[in-house]
TrEMBL record:
Organism the protein comes from: Lawsonibacter faecis
Entry keywords, A to Z: Cell cycle, Cell division, DNA-binding
Protein name: Probable cell division protein WhiA
Keyword field contains NAD: no
Keyword Lipid biosynthesis carried by entry: no
GO BP terms in the entry: cell division; regulation of sporulation
Function text: Involved in cell division and chromosome segregation.
Annotated WhiA LAGLIDADG-like domain residues: 119-210
Record-linked SUPFAM superfamilies: Homing endonucleases (SSF55608)
Sporulation regulator WhiA C-terminal domain residues: 213-296
Length: 299
């Protein structure tokens, strides 16, 4: 099951407690479904959970049954239709419309004044015309409608609820979408899918952790490369000195430092300093090695 399907399944577990919210959710479904005209309502879905919820939703909201509905257990795309004039009239009248006058749909803000009804409307819009990408791949949630006016009014409704959506067109459809993970999380939580929102948060944390680890590994690798290059350069300088002189002539401290460096080419300065007897600081050891390299250059 895709992440979008899981999200819709979670949303369909939200109880249909109030009739006003059932109407608001159905309103979102209608404005974002396949067809909502004065002749027909047609809702097509591949979600078994949404298909199970639709008859309950329309029964609760409008006290109507679908004229056409898929048989129980039918897979693939499921189509629900209403064509009877009296049923269409009941649906349209709930939103202050007459089927005969419905030339272009607008969102009737008056029926969405209550926050719980606006939330239900967003849920219906997502169930019928929404999708959300697997957060392991990228962050993207969209709501798609074929109604131009609805596409212009939805962002206003979302902004009133504290969201900042973006808009675009796709062929003959209009898309309102989010790409910021925080907005997607907040939107899904608001409409009744906190588990899906949590999954996005977890995916984001995992990506951030993986990125942090990769940066640390890359940084450590770069530092290791620098340490190896420095050690090779120091050893080359010591070998050059050995060809010209007996290192014991440099004094006990420099001679011991030179011997430790040659015998332990893989160690960092900190590790090498700890091997000194008595132990010295990293700064002290570095000073001695620089002295050896300077003698090699000037010899």
């Amino acid at each position: 099951m895709s992440f979008a399907s899981q999200t819709k399944a979670e949303l369909c577990r939200v109880p249909l407690a109030r009739r006003c919210c059932a109407q608001a959710e159905a309103y979102g479904v209608l404005l974002f479904c396949n067809s909502f005209t004065h002749r027909e309502v047609r809702i097509i879905t591949e979600s078994a959970d949404f298909a199970a919820r639709l008859p309950q939703l329309f029964r609760k909201g409008f006290r109507v049954e679908f004229d056409g509905a898929p048989a129980g257990g039918e897979g693939g795309k499921r189509a629900f239709t209403i064509a009877a004039p009296d049923k269409l009239a009941a649906v349209f009248s709930a939103f202050g419309q007459d089927p005969a006058d419905a030339l272009a749909h607008h969102i009737n803000f008056a029926v969405l004044e209550e926050e719980h009804c606006r939330t239900a409307f967003f849920r219906g819009a997502f169930l019928a015309g929404g999708s959300v990408t697997d957060p392991a791949k990228r962050y993207h949630l969209e709501l798609v409608t074929s109604h131009y006016n609805v596409s212009r009014e939805l962002p206003v409704l979302l902004q009133e609820a504290g969201f900042r959506p973006k808009e675009t067109t796709r062929k003959s459809n209009y898309m309102t979408y989010f790409k910021q993970s925080e907005y997607i999380e907040d939107f899904l939580t608001a409409i009744g899918a906190p588990l899906a929102a949590m999954e996005i948060m977890n995916a984001k944390l995992e990506k951030n952790l993986r990125g942090s680890v990769n940066r640390r590994v890359n940084c450590d690798a770069a530092n290791l490369d620098k340490a190896v290059d420095a050690a090779m350069e120091q050893i080359a300088a010591i070998r050059a000195l050995e060809k010209r002189m007996d290192l014991s002539e440099l004094g006990d401290k420099l001679a011991r430092t030179a011997r430790l460096r040659v015998e332990n080419p893989e160690l960092t300065l900190t590790q090498l300093a700890e091997l000194c007897d008595p132990p010295v600081t990293k700064s002290c050891l570095n000073h001695r090695l620089r002295k050896l390299m300077e003698l090699a250059r000037n010899g």
